[in-house]
Amino acid sequence: MTECIKILIKENPEELAWAGAELFCEAAETAVSQKGCFTVALSGGSTPRPMHRLLAKDPFRFRIPWNQTHVFWVDERMVSYDHPYSNFGLARNDLLDHVTLPAANIHPMPNTESPGENAFLYQKQLDGFFNLPLHQYPVFDLIVLGIGNDGHIASLFPGTPDPESKAAWVMPVKGGNPDVFRLTLTFPVLNNAARLFFLVSGKEKSEVIQTVFEKPSADLPAQHIRPHHCQLTWLLDRPAASMLSKFKQGANKT
Ligand code: 6PG
Prior knowledge:
By secondary structure, this protein is an alpha/beta fold. Helix content is about 30%, strand content about 20%. Bound molecules: 6-phosphogluconic acid (6PG). The site of 6-phosphogluconic acid (6PG) has 15 residues, from loops.
């Protein structure tokens, strides 16, 4: 793991969600004050949901410059947006329906074509939005990640072929739980973010967290996150951090 990594331990899921919402707001305020626009890519799963619900309420809702905010997805399951598995659908219910984010600023991953075609279409959409010279990767102002018990991040699972692919920004994948077709941003895009934070909650994640930090040879997808711009924060609640030797004594709360 690189040296620019910061680990913040919070006592419980509520404090974790609050800390995540703070980081989200800071990233939005900084990006908008520096360049007039904030781009964020959200993950799915259950862990970010309390943070999304907080962002939909005071004080966070009013701190975020929604008109200048553009929301994208780190990964998506290839189901309809109304399906309970849909990452976009969950974020819409928890957050997007409750804030004044213009519809044109919401960029869900497409789900109507084949997985390969959807991946191509999302990459094209990103390309149009970021409008980059050839061979450059988009720089999201913020990417929020979770981690699975097997060490996956986004929909990049252990054994996903060609994890360091230099070509694609978005790729189709089959697997995970639920075991469905998915689209995912790739490592080069994730690692190119200006800021990136993980949200990790619960005792069931403690083993994988220990592996990520203390067993570098495990070669888990989460260990391939080494952002080029040196802004990576791991936000853990105490149960998730409980197997880390550094925190086993209950010290070092940040
Ligand atoms: C997905 C995710 C995935 C998620 C982890 C953690 O769509 O499956 O984006 O990478 O972040 O599986 O999920 P939980 O928060 O539910 O544990």
